[in-house]
Structures are given as structure tokens and as C-alpha cells.
Amino acid sequence: MIKKVLVANRGEIAVRIIRSCREMGITTVAVYSDADRKSMHVLYADEAYHIGPSPSIDSYLNIDNIIRAAIMSGADAIHPGYGFLSENPAFSERCKKDGIIFIGPSADAIATMGDKITARKTMMAAGVPVVPGTEGKIDTEAEALRTIETIGLPVMIKASAGGGGKGMRLVHNPKEVKSALRAARSEAKTAFGDDSVFIEKYIESPHHIEYQILADSFGNVIHLFERECSVQRRHQKIIEETPSPIMTPEKRQKMGEDAIAAAKAVNYQGAGTIEFIVDKDLNYYFLEMNTRLQVEHPITERVVGVDLVKEQIHIANGLPLKLQQEKLKQNGHAIECRVYAEDPENNFMPAPGKVTHIDIPYGVGVRVDGSIYEGREVPIYYDPLIAKLIVWGKDRHEALERTTRALKEFKITGVKNNLKFLERIIISKDFVDGNYTTHFVDENKDFLMKEEPCDQNCEDIVIITAFMEYLQKIEKASPKEMTALKNNWKDYSRVRSVLKL
Amino acid sequence: MIKKVLVANRGEIAVRIIRSCREMGITTVAVYSDADRKSMHVLYADEAYHIGPSPSIDSYLNIDNIIRAAIMSGADAIHPGYGFLSENPAFSERCKKDGIIFIGPSADAIATMGDKITARKTMMAAGVPVVPGTEGKIDTEAEALRTIETIGLPVMIKASAGGGGKGMRLVHNPKEVKSALRAARSEAKTAFGDDSVFIEKYIESPHHIEYQILADSFGNVIHLFERECSVQRRHQKIIEETPSPIMTPEKRQKMGEDAIAAAKAVNYQGAGTIEFIVDKDLNYYFLEMNTRLQVEHPITERVVGVDLVKEQIHIANGLPLKLQQEKLKQNGHAIECRVYAEDPENNFMPAPGKVTHIDIPYGVGVRVDGSIYEGREVPIYYDPLIAKLIVWGKDRHEALERTTRALKEFKITGVKNNLKFLERIIISKDFVDGNYTTHFVDENKDFLMKEEPCDQNCEDIVIITAFMEYLQKIEKASPKEMTALKNNWKDYSRVRSVLKL
Amino acid sequence: MSYEVKLKDRIARVELLSRQGDQLLVAVDGKEYALDFAPLNKGSYSIIHNNKSYNVELIPVNGVKKYNVNTFKNTYEVEIIDAEAKYLANRLKGQEDEGESIITAPIPGKVVKVLVEQGEEVEAGQTVVIIAAMKMESEFKAARSGVVSEIKVKEGQSVEARQEMVVIEYSTD
Amino acid sequence: MSYEVKLKDRIARVELLSRQGDQLLVAVDGKEYALDFAPLNKGSYSIIHNNKSYNVELIPVNGVKKYNVNTFKNTYEVEIIDAEAKYLANRLKGQEDEGESIITAPIPGKVVKVLVEQGEEVEAGQTVVIIAAMKMESEFKAARSGVVSEIKVKEGQSVEARQEMVVIEYSTD
Q: How far is D44 from chain A (nearest CA, A)?
């Protein structure tokens, strides 16, 4: 049985994993880069090992350093979290070689699902619907045109090794095929060192719906229902909910069966997520599999009533799943809001800085997973996700009204963040109606950027408070400080003003 | 429909009620005494009215002042919370008279359940088991002895208007009857102005198990299962859990039916709780009905998946219950720990003071309801309950390990509190085994008062930290402050030392 | 005591008329407010005005004159404009039109594109440089119209936080 | 720099041997600790010692020499004993044996019972007075043996917080 876990990650997910380990009586080992010496996961873990400089490539992506920390600490298992090395088959393999349990799937499963053409072929063989398109890679314009004749326009040309929107070209017109093909292949070659591309039907106004699955080492695979993840900005999810407002019971069961089939096709073990793209008529197609825990896993935990990290550890311990598919049920409705240190008014640009003040929401139905504290500097090197708000309600209506309440209570000062933006999403008509696709943010930009109105009384109160605080500070300031003040402000009147964007 | 609610209460329950009102879009009005100007419920509400000096009798128990605030604010309803006026039939009646909706039962139901002999008779008539004893009040030793002959010793002589342990006498021996009877009647007369007493069989090693019920104005009554409340100190609950570890499905259903019968017998409307006393063979007897929300209501909310405050408001709005008995289910296990500002080492004496620091637990399965913040002075006038930790797990085992984790994360500094004591309870063998009665705290005193051991390393780290902080302060202190320090410490060397207990 | 206080585009004149413990009488642009003004902890206040309850938190930004202010509904930036600040604003105002502006990288990243050349005229809002950081591309725009006087980075180059990238001289019109 | 630090019954001698940024070498009763000692915010520290991580919070109690200290597992009271504190302790030590102790009410309540009379000898731990407050009765005991020199309250009487109730003169043995 696993006694000591090294968490090869940082931020909220590292803290979240440590919490479940603590509950199980498992000792935890944090690893940290230079920038993360004071990160919450380091403070919260039982042990902590330095693994390198701030850039991820030198620390959280440095397999040798992490394995060394695992060996030095005597950890018998490594939890990779999400991102970083979590979907790196070499890391899974290396753990195995060094006799450390990797809390996740085999290198093989990761590799199969990591290559889009291989994954596509495997899914087709397993009878899981994929987006209409080529079976393998294509090389010539003629092949491309033949495919387009079958599936119709528009289509997307995609790199097999792709990700992050690179090596992708949307084609609306047969005349664009040749140049798009050339561009995609060249971009793929540059970005991934592999110019294999394939063609898929382009789904307009799609929904992004994913299935959580769990698979043990005895071949038992279950799904824990869907998560609706269509609210995105910059191709990154910001709000997820479960159940999906567009789902029907029949479709839910059918997609669940296909999710299980997908996992079985790669002899999957552990927690994973099958992502589907769904069109307006509820036709669904396999998009990809995330062979790890997802950021949005807590909404499934809340509605199904499981601790997914504990399940991962049980599976890694070689225990059979205790959960049974036919006994699982979705209870109520859960919504997750991702709180980012970013500036919604400036195209969601990451906005690192020092957290000077936090108010966290509490009470019925509210869970907060985070990794910041007052005085903490949010590092510039990593993902700007600083907290997640997970809210439960007995139905979607209650989940929405509770999320609004919690977002109003939630304040983070010192770093720009998207809390107000999230609140606007939750109260927007399209979201309330459950009527949204991946284009939601673009289509609702005007509403989402507006501020909640405040009458003059309310503004005057704010003005008076600042005024009174200032008066008090002036009264309290010693003559010495006042002088310093006087000297300081002249420095500001430089000719050059540095623009901070 | 109710648009504005005045919350005639303070502390965590006032904040908790306001939260649900906010979610429903209802405007909230707080009331406050002198001592509560800076209480969280005042800060959190939309409006706030001062209702008198600090002692409850002049403020939170002052019906005229509260009604005046309700009328001035235009509130169309009053939520009484628990304690204070929540079980005062005159207050329910007064609201009705002044055209304000009282979010709770009728004066009649409150009065019937408030008098123990009347409640007892009503329950017997409804077929709900009561503790064997006299039907009405008794006046003479002879009557008492006749009763004892039937039900056997030991028995408890109880004041009809009783509460808080006053006017109660335990009788083990027939010879004690006469003097016990006299003592109980005289005490009852002094305490309640009514010397009516009755006799009940004394249940040894009892469990205290209660049922949450909801009743609408259409005669629909449902129960939301039990709460086990046997862990008490000074006759006050400190930890509650649901489901009860001693319950069987058959008993659960039978007691639930009786709880519904009890509520129906008084034409109950709103949320209420039927308290049962249960012996080791699972024989159960009606103890009393609390005609209001309970402190421990959140564990039912968590396991059944309802917001009880919202249900109260729906009922007060004259809406029929949407919940159906046969669809209700207990999902997983929930535990509540009551965090008191008190000193467990000094017989749980209330310990008011100023909160200088708080760390609140977060993450999966954790809810915190509270009313304190850093810098807040806990008033000396009211109940010392400052926060409630509500933890959910998929089963009792997980709920226990999670509660331990959360209690370790929970720190309140500046006021003495029972957090460590709660942690000891959760890890004690009897509690873990689910093997406890109302005598639990007394029987486990030695274990509960022990500190968790810490090796010398850990103590040395603490010592070093304090030392370093002190060094830094000395370095930073300006010469002026150092002088003040020097002058101050001589004041301490007085001949008289004031003992603070 | 009277000061000007800036909230968004509004500059309000605030005057403390009287104070009795926590009971204040304050005028904002001539409108009088009788307030119960209770300080909580470090920059937090509970204010009751006509029985409306406001919970206001002030977090100082760079010194004593600028605050982030949180109310239940909104978040504001507020600035106290005292004599010094006014003097400063006037001096800056006079100078900045003939000054220059440097576009710096707020976070470390890689220069994807430089869209201007030295000597080129740019308009306010025009994209000048694109940076990729944290897997995202961000556009950096000119704050006002002017002329590019210096380009300090190349496409493909890595930049550190606060590294200067492009210098623009303001137009003097 | 070297001080004595008191934790429970233990008085430890602590010495700072060297310091390089956050890297400390400290001796506690002669045992050396090499620590990575990172200050977080107001009285919070993250300490790594032999790769064990400790998160320690210090909250000052009455001035600068006494702290409540929270670690993940426990909570302590710690006191710095510098020269002044020692001097003070010595003076007090000499005096308190001939001093007196006043039992005060910590919270407002009502005197339920006074269990001693003036001139009566009491032993350490003996209950002296019972107070009812917040619906609870609390017993107040003599901290050490002595003689009751004054009783300042009557049964049934209301008391305020910090009101003096019973004065006990210490025995001089």
C-alpha cells in the first residue's frame, strides 16, 4: 500500500491532492522551483524538495530531478496532477523503471491517446464515433479533395501531433485546400517535428462535453457522467457544469457507454476523461482523451459523491473499484468557476502580482480549492489559475443563484482577476437558459464586459471611506513619514513614464 | 411572495439565513444590540437596525423593538433563527397581529410543544411513544410511588415548564421520593413560576437522536431522517452526525413515521425537530419538539441535499412542499463540529476575547458556517458558538478522516476554543467505533484532554521561530519604541497579581 | 478637512463636517451624509447610512493616496487628490505630451511579431508587438499616437518581465 | 544573539549561529539546526529542515515577548525570556509568595454560591465561588493554598466582567 506520495505539481491541484492524501494517512512530498519556495503546496506538505530554477522546463518538467526527489524522500508513488508531466509517456515509463508507482495510466495508453491519428484509428476500431474525416494521415491535395467530397465542407486540417491550435487550418472553399494543406504541414513540422496531418469535418457551434471515467487493474471501467465545458476563452475552459443542460437521459447513457469503450480500447487504468464534440442535434464525436485528472474534476466529485484523488490512489494500489456503474447517480447540479489572475479587459492577459487581500465565500453548497494567500506573489512562470469555486445546488436554478452569491462574496485584491467576469457569465441570459456553445464568450462580449451599476449613494460611500482612511493615515503619520512622503512624490514627476500594460 | 426578511437573531445563524435570502433575491434586514454593531451579520445584511443595549433581554428578546424595526424597514417577514424569540409563542402571535409573516409555526404549536406535560399528552394521544411515566402532573408522594411501582426505578422528576436541567431530580430509591418531589416543585416554582411536575422513567446510557421534519400549510409533512446528537458537554451538543451509527433501516422508518405523526398532532407548519431519547436496545421515546431551525441543521442539508432555510421561506410563502418523502435519500455521511469560544481545560467555561488570527479549512467535502473575523471581539453577552464545521464523506469512515483533516487546518487564535478538543473526540476509539451515548465526554475525559505528542524537533522549530520573530522585532524597533518597552515592563512587577481564570 | 477624491471619471469634493466617535457628517459634492462609520480591522469599515449597511474594504495601492475598494457588489479604484497630487498632475500633464512611452513586457515570454519599424508613425490603439507567454499570445498596443523611436527586441527573442521592447515618442499636437 | 525561550515547562537556550538570507544555522540547547527559513506574511513562516516542511504562525500576545504559535498539529504558548523578563521574574518570584491573589469574574454573570468565609483557610484547587453565566455554572478555584482575606460579592448578586470577587492571601510556607 502507498505510504508516501510525491506530488509532481504545484498550485491548487498540488494542495488538493495533498488534502486527500492527508485524509488517507499518506505522507506527502512537495517539489518546488525557485519561484515556488513560498507556494502553498510547499507550506502544506509534510516534506518539500527543491527541483530547480523557476522555468518549468528546468523544474516541473525535469524528470531526473523529480525522480531524484522521489528516491531521496523514499516516496513509493508519484501523483502528476494535471499539466506538466502528467501526459508524458516517458515519465510514466521512468517511474515504472525506477520502481515508483505512477498514479496514472501506462506509458502505452498515454502515447496512444496522445497521437491524434492513432487515437482516431483506435476509437474507430472500438466503434466510438469520431468526427467524419480521413482515417489516417493525408499527403496530397487529391486525397484531401476526395475526403471533402465524402464529408462536405467546411473541414479542418489538423496536425496529428497537434495541440494548442497549432498546425490547424479551417477550409471553407475547395480552392483553399492546397495552400491550407501546405501551411498546416509546414507549421506542424516546425512545431512538433512531424508533418502528419489529417482532415476532419468542422463542427459549427459545437458543445464541448466530456466524460469522467475510472478504470481499475481488473478491467472494470465505469463512467461518472458528463461535464459541460463549452464556456471557454482563448480555447481554455473557464466555467464547467454537470449535468450538461443540453443532455437527454438516452444520450447520456449512450455517450457513457462509448466513453467506457474508448477507455477499454487502450486498456486504460486510473482516472481519465473522454472529450466529445457535440453538435446542435446532439450528434457527438470523440475529440480526445485526457489521460489524467482534469481541472474541473470537483464538479463530478460533488454531484456523484466521490473523491477522485482517493479513487486514483486506490487504483494505483491495485485495489478493485468499489463503485458500481448501476448504483451511480447524479445528485443535483454543480458549477465550477475558474479564477484566473488575468485581465478580462485586456484580452485575458495573465496578470501576475502580489495578493494583498482575499475574501473567500463560505456556507451551504460552496467549495473553494485554491493556492493563494495574503502576501503571496503569484509567479509569472506558470498557469494563472489561482482558485476554483465549486458550487452545488439541488437543481441548476439553485446552483446558479448560489454561484452568483458566492462570486459576490469572493474578492481578490492585488492581482487583476476574472471574478467579476465570471459573475457576468453566470447572470447572462444565454448561460441562464443553458443555451451556449464554445462561441459563448465571443457572442456575449458586450454584456460580459459591462459593470454592475451602482447608484450615486453607493459611489459616495466608497468615496467617503477612502477619504476617511486617508485622513486617519495623515493624522497618524509621524513627521518623519510625512517628510518621506514629500520627498517621494517628486520622484514620480519624471519626464519618462513607463507604460505598464 | 416575501421580498424582505428581517432576521431576528445574530451570529452564525443570522449570516447563514442571510446567505439563503441573498440567493433567493430577498432583501435582508439585520438587527443588532450595542455589542453587535460590528458583528458579521450586520456587515453582511443589506440593512441594519439597532434594537437596544447589549443584554439579550433588552435587544434580541425585546419584541417591541424588533417589531418596530420590521415595520420601519418594510420587512414583510421575520426569521427568528434559533434561541432568543424563536420558540416564544407571544412573538409568533405578535407578528401575525402586525401583519408580518413569522417564518415558523403558529403560536399554538409552539405553546403546545413548549409545555412538557401538554406535549406529552398530545404525543400519547397521537400514538407516539413517550418515556413511561405519569400522564399529567403529580402532587403527592403517594401518586409518585404508584407511578414508580408501574414503571420501576430509577425515575426522573421533571418540571412541566422545565428546561436547562432546572426542576429536575433523579430518584434511585423509594425513600428519596418525598424530598426529591418537594425539591423539584420548589425549584420549578422559583424558576418558572409553575410548580407542576411529572415523573418519567430514567433512561440510562441514552442516545439522543432527533428527526428533521418539514410541514407545509396543505398538511403535507415529511421527515428528512435522523441526526445523532449524543456527544454533549454540559448538556449541550458539540458534535452531531447523520446517519446515526446505531440506526437500522427498520427503526429509521418507524421513527420517521412517528416524527411525522408528532408534527401532525399539533398541525405543525415549517421546519421543526422531534427529539427522541433512545436506549441501548433501540427503544425510543419522544423527548421534546424544537419548533424552529436547529444549530445542527446543515448535516441534514448536506446528506439529503436541501437548503432548509429556503424550504422555510417557501412554506412561509404558502407554497406546497416539492420534496416527496419516497424520493428522499441519505447520501453519504455528514458530521458537524461546533466551535465554541470556551476553555475545555476549565470545564468549558465561555472564553470571550478578540480574534487575532483565523485559518479556515477548505477543499472537498468541507463547509464552514461562522460569524467571526480577524480583529472581531467575541461579545460576552451571548452564546459562545463562533463557527460550525460541517464535513461530508461518502461513508462514515471518510467523513471521520476528512473531519480530522479539516480540524487540523482550522485555527482560531486570540480566543480560547475547543478545536483541539473536537479533534480528540473525532479520533477517540469510542467515537470512531460509533459506540457512544450522552455520557461519552465524561467517560473519555482522560483521552480527550490529552495533547497530540510532538517530538523535540517540532518543539525546537517552534522555539526557533519565536526567537527569530523576536530578533527581527528588536532589530526593527526604533529607539523610541525600545524606551517605551523598557518603561512598560517595570509596571508588571506589581506586588498584587490579578488571577485571570 | 476637505479633499478631492477621484473614482473612475468623477472627481468629487469631500468634506468632513463633524465627527462624534463613529458618527460622521460628511458632504460629497455638497450632498450631506450622516453615517455610522465603524472601523473593523486593517482598512475595513462597516458603514450604516439610513439603515443601509455597507461593508467596505480598502486596500492601499502604492502608498497612501490610491486604494482598491471592495464593496459587496463592486470593486473600484479610488485616488485622493490632495495639493501634492494636483501639483504633480499639473507638472506631468505639461510634460507628458512631449515625453515618450516605453512598452514593456509584463511577463516573461517570446516575441512573436514586431509590427512596426523605427521611425514609423503609430496611432493610439495600434498593435506594436505580439508576445507569447503562458501558452497565449498577447498584443501590445500604442497608448497614444506618436513615432517609434526605438525597437529594442527582435522576433523570436525571449524577453524577461519588465524588459523594455518599443519606445514611442508622443506627438506634440 | 542568544536568548532563553520558554515552551510549556521547558526553557531552551537559543542562539543564532549564522545567517545567509533565508538560510539559518541556529542552536537550541546545543543542538544545531540548518534551516531554510522563509518569512511569509505578518508572523507566518515556512521552514524547511532536512526536507521536512513546517508552516508556523506566530500571533503576539500582549506585547512582543509572548506568542501563540500554531503548527499544523499543535498550538503552543511561547515566551522569550530576555534579561528584562528574567529580572522581572526574579522580582515577582520573591514577592508573590507574600502576595495575594484576587479571583475575578471573567464574564458577566450571577453569583450562585460563595463557598468560603473571610478568614477561612483554603487549599490549592478548592472551589471558592460559583458563577452562573451564559446559562452555565462555572466553579472558581483557589490557585494555591492561603487564607481568604476578603469577600467582595454576595450570593445572588450580579457581577460584571473583571469584577473582583474573592481575595486570598498566600501562605508563606
A: 10
Distance in angstroms (rounded) separating the CA atoms of residues A394 and A401: 11
C157 to chain A, closest Cα gap in Å: 16
CATH class for the domain made up of B105-129+204-331: alpha beta
Contacts of A348 in chain C (CB under 8 A): 136
Give tens-digit pLDDT for A64-101.
999 999 999 999 999 999 999 999 999 999 999 999 99
Q: Give me the domains of chain C, ranges plus CATH numbers.
A: 1-95 (3.30.700.30), 97-173 (2.40.50.100)
Order of all β-strands in the sheet with D121-122: B497-499, D100-104, D164-170, D146-151, D121-122
The neighbouring-strand residues paired with A388 are A338, A369
Considering only CB atoms, D51 lies closest to which of A43, A44, A73, namely A73
Q: Is B19–A363 a contact, with Cβ atoms under 8 angstroms apart?
A: yes
pLDDT digits (tens, 9 = 90+) for A319-373: 999 999 999 999 999 999 999 999 898 888 888 888 988 999 999 999 999 999 9
User: What is the pLDDT, as a whole number, of residue C91?
Assistant: 58
Greater confidence (B392 vs A493) lies with B392
Q: Quick one: cell of B208?
A: 439522543
In whole angstroms, what is the distance from residue D82 CA to residue A350 CA? 49
Supply the CATH classification number for the domain B4-103: 3.40.50.20
C-alpha cell at A367: 467549495
Q: Are B293 and B82 in contact (CB under 8 A)?
A: yes
Contact B38 C40 (CB under 8 A): yes
Q: Which of D37, D49, D51 to mutate to test the interface with A (most CBs of A within 10 A)?
A: D51
Query: Quick check: D51 and A376 CB within 8 A?
Result: no
Residue C110, Cβ neighbours under 10 Å: how many?
16
CATH superfamily of B132-201: ATP-grasp fold, A domain (3.30.1490.20)
Could you check whether the bond before residue A243 is cis, i.e. omega within 30 degrees of 0? yes
| For chain A, domain boundaries | 4-103, 105-129+204-331, 132-201, 334-440, 456-499
User: What's the DSSP call for residue B451?
Assistant: P
Chain B residues in contact with D100 (beta carbon < 8 A): 496
Q: How far is CA D77 from the centre of its chain?
A: 7
Rounded Cα distance between A419 and A431, Å, is 16
CATH number listed for the domain at residues A334-440: 3.30.470.20
Give the predicted TM-score (pTM) of the model: 0.88
Cα(B389)–Cα(B387) distance, integer angstroms = 7
Which residue in chain B is spatially nearest to A300 when comparing CA positions? B364
Cβ contacts of A404 on chain B, cutoff 8 Å: 23
Task: Chain A: list its partners (3+ Cβ pairs within 8 Å).
Answer: B, C, D
Predicted confidence at residue B481, as pLDDT, reads 46
Contact predicate B125/B112, CB 8 Å: no
Which set of grid coordinates corresponds to residue C79?
485616488
What ipTM does the predicted assembly reach?
Answer: 0.85
What's the distance, CA B133 to chain centroid?
Answer: 28
Do A105-129+204-331 and A4-103 have the same topology in CATH? Answer: no
Would the pLDDT of B466 be above 70? Answer: yes
Q: Of B18, B37, B43, which to mutate for an interface test with C (greatest number of C Cβ within 10 Å)?
A: B43
Q: Which residues contact B113 (CB under 8 A, 6 or more apart)?
A: B119, B266, B288, B289, B291
The rounded distance, in Å, linking the Cα atoms of B237 and D83 is: 47
* DSSP H helices in B415-476: 419-427, 429-432, 440-443, 445-449, 456-476
* A37 part of the active site: no
Residue A133's contacts (CB-CB under 8 Å, 6 or more residues apart) are: A147, A151, A155, A198, A199, A200, A201
User: Do A375 and D53 make contact, defined as CB atoms within 8 angstroms?
Assistant: no
Residues of B belonging to the active site: 292
The amino acid at residue A400 is L
Reading the block at residue B332, the C-alpha cell is 453519504
